[in-house]
Amino acid sequence: MADTSTTPTSDGKTANQAENILERAEAALRDVEDSLRSPNVHRYALEELIGSEGPPEKVSIDLLRDVTLELKIELGRTRMSLDDILQLRKGSVVTLDKLAGDPVDIYVNGRLVARGEVLVLNDNFCVRVAELVGSDAI
Q1: Is 81 helix (H, G, I), strand (E, B) or coil?
Q2: What distances in angstroms separate CA 35 from CA 21, 40, 121, one per listed residue?
Q3: How far apart are the C-alpha atoms of 114 and 129, rounded to whole Å?
Q4: Other beta carbons within 10 Å of 62
Q5: pTM, rounded to two decimals
Q6: Which residues neighbour 33 within 8 Å (Cβ) at sequence distance 6 or greater?
Q7: pLDDT digits (tens, 9 = 90+) for 96-112
């Protein structure tokens, strides 16, 4: 049986309190070990994540053919009040913050990747890429 007398320690706690804490910690560890031995507890076996081969020598662009990307061309921006937006009708003109001939921004999945110029080819609008934007310029 442990001594129940209380002897003050240098930090103001009693030796009895420290022994009680230690005994409770040891009991908690025994409980955990006992529960792991229970037939109802099953350990999960992790599989090795080692590939069978290295990367192929030639990687084809075909790997990316099914990847969906959102491409957005931004001609310019403007700020409008809600009242002005509600007054928009067919034929309304919205003034943008860029001038005619200024480069347009090309976004892929919301990230600026290039700038280009708007062209008309066979009655269709097109964008010719004029500049690729590096990650440090974003």
Answers
A1: coil
A2: 21, 9, 74
A3: 7
A4: 7
A5: 0.47
A6: none
A7: 888 888 899 999 999 99
